[in-house]
């Protein structure tokens, strides 16, 4: 981890801005506001066991899931921080059914979609959780400052101008990209500052780890089952068998795979006829992480081979299957789904 003489996230953002004379500083300001929200959430997460905010809030979100108290705190923290920051025209949260307007007179030229606390089912058992965010430029950028609408938010992932996540674990890390590589910053709680700890992050092209909920195996397509069976076969020439590493918190599984290499798989299944396309949300989870992994040299596709960042959302809470991680391993998954198998 960088020491107090290292590069802070604020300096990194400003240095990046200087490389683009046309930059107005608004994106830098937006990211800085998100960083403040992240520090606030991090402090609360670290105090959760002492502050009586573990457990359920008594509310249910748009997904029909019980809202944990920390979920609600994180959601409200980001909303309050960003509503009057002056850089965005509209927000959307995984926790809320409709768009979230900003304060009148504070409309900006960007949009923000966020999952306030991914992996919240693990809150009470002290497993790493995180905040995921996605930033687009509003479609109506040529208009005078005004409130944004749903159309401003329903843009494909390749149009993102920034995306990232903050993971709250043994330490708090912020990982983000503005389309010029991926950089990770670790929070030094003694001074309350993020320092550059993982510059220019690259995911290994091939790995030896896979992340999937094998409890759903019976509900998978044949190609998915065949691929997982292939990863378990012993073949030293191709580096198999792979080892299973599944936390059940997307941001945690993704973060580990980004650093060590790996493939995370959440395919379509037949378990719940009302959710045929899986569990993960395009705007709040799949698209921002796909943007990051592509910047780091990896891939992200659906289980039928569609590039995640090419999908134009049709609703705020659209779900998609997700295969994301090291390029070779995602390529191999795609071959199995197309009926092809790597020769030993």
- What is the fold-level CATH name, i.e. the topology of the largest domain? Fructose-1,6-Bisphosphatase, Chain A, domain 1
Q: How many β strands by DSSP?
A: 15
Sheet with the most strands: spatial strand order = 4-3-5-6-7-8-9-10
Which stretches are low in confidence, meaning pLDDT under 50 for 5 or more residues running?
Answer: none
Radius of gyration equals: 20 Å
Determine the strand fraction and express it as a percent band.
15-25%
- Count the DSSP helices: 8
- Percentage of residues assigned to helices: 25-40%
What is the global morphology? globular
What's the CATH H-level superfamily name of the largest domain? Fructose-1,6-Bisphosphatase, subunit A, domain 1
Question: SSE order, as H and E?
Answer: HHEEHEEEEHEEEEEHEHEHEEH
The tally of domains stands at: 2
The mean pLDDT is 90
What is the second-level CATH architecture of the largest domain? 2-Layer Sandwich
* CATH class category name of the largest domain: Alpha Beta
Distance N to C terminus = 41 Å
Major sheet summary line: 8 strands, mixed
Structural class determined from secondary elements: alpha+beta
Which tags fit this structure?
D-Maltodextrin-Binding Protein, domain 2; eight-stranded mixed beta sheet; globular; Fructose-1,6-Bisphosphatase, Chain A, domain 1; five-stranded mixed beta sheet; 344 residues; 2 domains
């Amino acid at each position: 981890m960088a020491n107090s003489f290292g590069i802070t996230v604020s300096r990194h953002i400003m240095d990046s801005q200087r490389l683009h004379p046309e930059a107005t500083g608004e994106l830098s300001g937006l990211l800085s506001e998100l960083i403040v929200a992240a520090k606030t959430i991090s402090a609360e997460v670290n105090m959760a066991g002492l502050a009586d905010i573990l457990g359920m809030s008594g509310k249910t979100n748009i997904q029909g899931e019980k809202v944990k108290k920390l979920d609600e705190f994180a959601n409200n923290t980001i909303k309050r921080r960003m509503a009057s920051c002056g850089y965005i025209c509209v927000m959307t949260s995984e926790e809320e059914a409709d768009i979230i307007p900003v304060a009148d007179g504070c409309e900006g030229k960007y949009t923000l979609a966020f999952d306030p606390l991914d992996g919240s089912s693990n809150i009470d058992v002290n497993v790493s959780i995180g905040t995921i965010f996605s930033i687009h430029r509003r479609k109506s950028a040529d208009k005078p400052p005004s409130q944004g609408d749903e159309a401003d938010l329903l843009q494909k992932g390749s149009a993102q101008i920034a995306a990232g996540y903050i993971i709250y674990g043994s330490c708090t890390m912020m990982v983000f990209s503005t389309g010029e590589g991926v950089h990770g910053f670790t929070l030094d709680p003694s001074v309350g500052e993020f320092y550059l700890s993982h510059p220019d992050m690259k995911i290994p092209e091939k790995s030896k780890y896979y992340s999937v909920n094998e409890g759903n195996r019976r509900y998978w397509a044949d190609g998915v089952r065949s691929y997982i069976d292939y990863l378990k076969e012993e073949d030293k020439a191709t580096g198999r068998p792979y080892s299973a590493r599944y936390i059940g918190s997307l941001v945690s599984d993704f973060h580990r795979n980004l650093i060590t290499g790996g493939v995370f798989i959440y395919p379509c299944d037949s378990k719940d006829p009302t959710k045929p396309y899986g569990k993960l949300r395009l705007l709040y989870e799949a698209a921002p992480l796909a943007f990051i992994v592509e910047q780091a040299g990896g891939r992200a596709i659906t289980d039928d081979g569609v590039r995640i960042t090419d999908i134009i959302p049709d609703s705020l809470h659209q779900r998609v299957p997700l295969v994301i991680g090291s390029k070779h391993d995602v390529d191999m998954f795609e071959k199995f789904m197309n009926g092809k198998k790597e020769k030993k």
